[in-house]
Amino acid sequence: MVPQVVKVRIETSRVGSSRGFTLIELLIVLLIISVASSVVVISIGVANKKTVLRRAARETFLLLRHAREVSVMEKRPVRFEPLEDHSGFNLTDVTGTTIASYSLPEGFTLEAEEVTFFPFGNSTGGRVLLMDMEGRAYEILLEPTTGEIRLGTR
């Protein structure tokens, strides 16, 4: 019997023609993902502070409108009285009875003078400024003649 020769062909992979990823490529992708996620986390923190300031400004605006409405409906003057420590305000009537109180969230300040709303819808007018520690601010303007209240950024 004649021995048969069987040819076996073994293929070896060449560098660059492999179908998987190298460890370096995987580490680079993980680094990119971690940097992107840290940027997102920082952005969320800043957006949260802006949202809290916006909410405080909106609540102050609505309470000022409420004070004007109470004054007109009940035909008595209502006062907006900022607290001395700039942390909030009270709404009171002429007898000193508190109608509403509001305290700002931690880290926010309120700058304003006392404003009185009269039964005809007008007021003494003025400006209320709400600020955070980074300098962002909302301004509420009170028109003396019409009693109109406007909210805007500063």
Label this structure with key terms.
154 residues, alpha+beta, minor pseudopilin epsh fold, 4-stranded antiparallel β-sheet, rod-shaped
Fraction of residues in helix:
25-40%
How many strand elements? 8
What's the architecture, going by CATH?
3-Layer(bab) Sandwich
Biggest sheet details: 4 strands, antiparallel
Structural class: alpha+beta
- Tell me the CATH superfamily: minor pseudopilin epsh domain
First-to-last CA distance: 102 Å
Number of domains: 1
Q: Write the CATH fold name.
A: minor pseudopilin epsh fold
Overall average residue pLDDT: 88
Strand composition percent: 25-35%
Q: Radius of gyration, rounded?
A: 33 Å
Low-confidence sequence ranges? none
CATH class identity:
Alpha Beta
> Largest sheet, order of strands side by side?
3-2-1-5
Cα shape: rod-shaped
Figure out the total of helices: 1
| Helix/strand order, N-terminal first | HEEEEEEEE
What topology emerges from the helices and strands here?
Elements: H1 23-74, E1 78-82, E2 88-93, E3 98-103, E4 108-112, E5 115-117, E6 126-132, E7 137-142, E8 149-153
Antiparallel strand pairs: 1-2, 1-5, 2-3, 4-6, 6-7, 7-8
Describe the structure.
The chain is an alpha+beta fold. Helices cover 34% and strands 28% of the residues. It has a single domain (32-153), classed as 3-Layer(bab) Sandwich (minor pseudopilin epsh fold), CATH 3.55.40. The chain is built from one helix and eight strands, in the order H-E-E-E-E-E-E-E-E. A hairpin with a 5-residue loop joins strand 1 (78-82) and strand 2 (88-93). The mean pLDDT is 88.
